[in-house]
Amino acid sequence: MKLRTWITIVVLQFAVYTHSLPTCINAVQAAINTLAFIESQPLSDYDARCRGRLRLISFYASTTVYCEPDELKEGLEGVATECSAQNTTLVPISEFEANLTEDAISHLRIVERFELDGGDNLTVPVLLSEEFFNLAYKTIVTWEYEIALRREYAFTSYAFWGIIIVIGTLCNYLMKCWERRSYNGDTHVDADDQASMSSHLAMVFRRIYHITKMYFSLPAGWKTYHLRLYYGCTVPTRMETIIVIIFWAMSITLSVIKYPVFYGNVYWLLPDRQLARYFADRTGELSYAHLPVLWLFSGRNNVLQWATGWSFGTFNIYHRHVARVATLQAVAHSIAYHHLIMKNNGMALYREWIQMPWFYLGIFATILMSILPMLSSIYLRIYHYEFFLLVHITFSLIIILTLFVHTSIFHGVYDIYLWPVVVVWVIDRSLRLVRLVYCNIRISLKDPNHPILMTKSTVTYSSVSNVLRITVTPGVFSLRPKPGTHYYIYAASNWFGWDLWESHPFTLASLDYTGTSNSGASRPLRPRAMDEELYTQPCYNSIDSDTPMVSNEKESPALVFYIRPFDGFTKRLRDMCLRTPNRQATVRLLLEGPYGHSAPLENFETLVLIAGGTGIAGTLPYIREYVNHQWGRRRWRTENIHFIWTTQQAAFINEVASKELRPAFGRDDLHMLFYATSTATSRAPPGLSDTADYSDNLDTLLTSETPGELGIQYHRPDVPALIRAAVAKHRSSGKGSGRVGILVCGPAGMADSARATVVQILREGFERVEYFEEAYGW
Asked: What are the residue boundaries of the FAD-binding FR-type domain, all occurrences included (predicted)?
């Protein structure tokens, strides 16, 4: 096929996207455009279609024979519109009335489909044979079918995620109702009294929920790996894994099924070339269709997180898999198109198209999409977050811009997939800006000397514990964070440098009312049964302990974050502190938040709070709320809390115990175990193992007997044994109808072992245990 004819066919196909002509008219037009006419004067492609005498007589004669009058009228109006769009004019059918009489048409040469494949040029008008017309008609019907089918499959992806989101939202709503009933005491019933429950439906729901939790939502997708990496890969939960597998299977299936090909197609004679074109178009549109979902799942201000109750980590898992599928489909689209080009005129067509922006920018977008997953590996996200963030944002914006140009030849047909991306991105960034302004700037008309209040920050580094303590006093007084929430911290002092792109998530550990403008209104809260000797121990001298623990509601509390410095942002903060004599630096930091959800721990009779290292930030707020209601006025049903904290340096334990954790000591209902691993030589105390009789070792496991002011034990705790001991103690105390809540915030290995233990407890028959995990989903 000649290059000119190939380009003409492609242009005609583009027109099908933007103009809905009757199928009959399209069929005749497609067939006529495969023929080469020698006009009296040379004409361009569109001029030949709109003004070429031989071509138009052949076109009008064939449409007169094979198309209905109403189709002919509508179709010719559409063709005239196409010609006008190309800055030319369609010669009307009335100009050829003498050539379109029944007698004139009967004397026209009849052309068969394969008669002129050798490239012969026509010097007279022709009439399409019935077989030729039928093949052209089948070609158009198939082409329109493929257009409709790939659009339908594109929206099938939306339907899939819509169903998942609706189910998640419904489950979240039912859980909220269940927790509300639990909060009011309606579900505090023994198994023997289940018949007295007001609703049999509630019993059914609880049973379904238990089975789902035990076998799907809580277990890891592979063995016991979840937060731990499995050969460098993150592993979702089993439920998330099932959803991801279904999504992959659906995406692959929709990419490869239903391609009606046949020999004699007027666009592509051979079936393999038809298949290549249909496959290229479908995978391209499916890739486009994934983009809104891809952006929606990646946003911080994702309303779906609130609706479903899922964590950012869950949506991040789905975001990454949608991105991988979209990338593979984009690559398949590009490969199929290049194969088709090489099969039709080869490098001649390629050299012509590579000069067109829509073509070479499409190649560029595919290359960037292919590189981006490789530059988004878990190691890069963790250890070179700044670089990852800069590349991710830059590449993503370039990809969207190039895709607008890539499909501009279709006159906005594919923009329905791109504009939602822009809207989602603008809304998310705007809400981030709103949060930044709200958290950090307050305009006061009452104080002319300080009309604008800004966020103030100090960073203190303890070389003994190797921990940064960031204290941020927001500019706004009305900020009332909740336990379990996290904030993104910006280094505002370097906004014109590399840090412009940085915003790092950190869990809020505590509120500090020391040094606020109304601090005089505060008073220390004396915990019940407080051990007086605790405050005289020398281990607390490292940090001032005169910190008020109950606030006046009008105060602006300082937000406290614990961070262990590594590379990049945290290393720079540590270096700033090391350059000062007192290891304390004043830094202009900005807050963005709060994000995340609070776990409903107040509904559990027994709590097991497990923290590892700076993961104390995920558990400490709940302890402080329970002890003195600093975070709110929720009524707690909790009767016992087992708090287990493991960190490398004992100094960190001493520092937190002398300040934020101080009011928790001396209580009969709060049992704390501390472990320092810097000198650990064994995993558990002598005489205890994973197979120990927990009922015989409860006191040993859940009390600290080692010497020292805080009873710090210098070994790694047996987390599964401690969890089992706490659950066994809860059940043996006659509170079997009550619930046990287990919250873990710590290293991946610790969290995964705790998760696996809870799953095993559920399978052993104890249903009234819930597992919560505080972790940022990389």
From this structure: 449-601
Tokens of 57: 């007589």
Q: Fill in the DSSP letter of residue 636.
A: P
**Residue 617 and residue 509: Cα distance in Å, rounded?**
4
Radius of gyration of the chain measured on its C-alpha atoms? 35
In the three-class reduction of DSSP (H, G, I as helix; E, B as strand; rest coil), residue 224 is classed as: coil
Question: Are 542 and 429 within one domain?
Answer: no
Spatial distance between the Cα atoms of 272 and 269, rounded to a whole number of angstroms: 9
DSSP notation for 166-177: HHHHHHHHHHHH
* Cβ–Cβ under 8 Å, residues 558 and 511: yes
- Phi and psi at 743, nearest 5°, equal -115, 130
DSSP of 328-359, one letter per residue?
Answer: HHHHHHHHHHHHHHHHTTTHHHHHHHTTSHHH
pTM of the model: 0.86
447, part of any domain? no
Residue 215 lies in a domain: no
Quote the tokens at residue 230.
């499995």
Extended strands (E) in 509-639: 510-512, 558-563, 584-586, 589-595, 606-612
The residue segments making up the domain with residue 63 are 3-128
Question: How many domains, in total, are found in the chain?
Answer: 3
Same structural domain for residues 174 and 61? Answer: no
User: What SS3 state is found at 126?
Assistant: strand
Alpha-carbon distance of 610 to 629, in angstroms, equals 20
- Quick: pLDDT tens for 26-81: 999 999 988 989 887 777 777 888 999 999 999 999 999 999 999 999 999 999 99
CA 234-237-240 angle, to 5 degrees, is 100
- pLDDT tens digits for range 393-435: 999 999 999 999 999 999 899 999 999 999 999 999 999 999 9
**Is residue 546 in some structural domain?**
yes
